[in-house]
Amino acid sequence: MINEKHAKIVRRIYKDYLDGKGPNRIAKELEEEGIPNWNGKSKWYESSIRKILSNEKYKGDALLQKTYTVDFLTKKRAVNNEEVPMYYVEESYPAIIDKDVWEAVQLEMERRKTFAEKYGISKLDYATVNNPFAGRIIRGHCGSAFGRKVWNSTDERLRRVIWRCNKKYEVKGKKSCENGHIDNRVLYQAFVNTFNAMIKNRDYFMEKWKEGMKSGDALVRYKSKQFIRILRDVEAIKEFDMDLFFSITEKMTVFEGKKIIVSLLDGTEIEVVVE
Fold this sequence. Notes:
Blueprint: H1 4-18, H2 23-32, H3 46-54, E1 62-64, E2 67-71, E3 76-79, E4 87-89, H4 99-119, E5 137-139, E6 146-151, E7 160-165, E8 181-183, H5 184-200, H6 202-212, H7 218-233, H8 242-248, E9 249-254, E10 259-264, E11 269-273
Parallel strand pairs: 5-9
Antiparallel strand pairs: 1-4, 2-3, 6-7, 7-8, 9-10, 10-11
GO molecular function: DNA binding; DNA strand exchange activity
Organism: Garciella nitratireducens DSM 15102
Protein name: Recombinase zinc beta ribbon domain-containing protein
């Protein structure tokens, strides 16, 4: 029997994750909205969100003997790290999440893990409303991630948010990367320009994503459908849209001369120059 109240929350968590949100942000938003967890309490944890996203029971399957009894007298149990056999049973429960969606989430989790390891990013999933670019800005010259810095943070009139290569001063007092910095506002405009370029070439992208829907990869199929929904009826944008950014963008690679290459989650790369 499906608990529809819980099922609705689970479906939302899966959708939010595939919309580009991290477990930390998903947990905070559930708390802010006063949505209770499975124990009826309003506190949500990042670890709980990750467990929900990776639990096969939500697609109707069961992995038996995840834990096993170590001592039958004390009834002590332990996590099964292949000490005893585990058994995978398909369609053991009524499914809450479509199998394709569940598989897409597993592939997206692996993609984010690989991306974070490649660029040495520890907090890829911690982007917020005030810091949407966290873990997504890369230095073209050395391939390292940019870090967010605030200049004149005590004076609101002079306050500026900039991004600088994390390797610039990897060794204290010594420059390891000659890259300068880039203003937060330039990144906002770069995304606006990118999305509007997609609008101008809507027909091309629509055909590309229709082909993507035939892919054998569940994540490619999901993102192709998602991109089609996003671009089908929308018009050009004038301001940065954070949710839109999370949904379609993998990273922004910054080069000298104000050149930025915006990499989308469908594999497309669009070069923009922001004056």
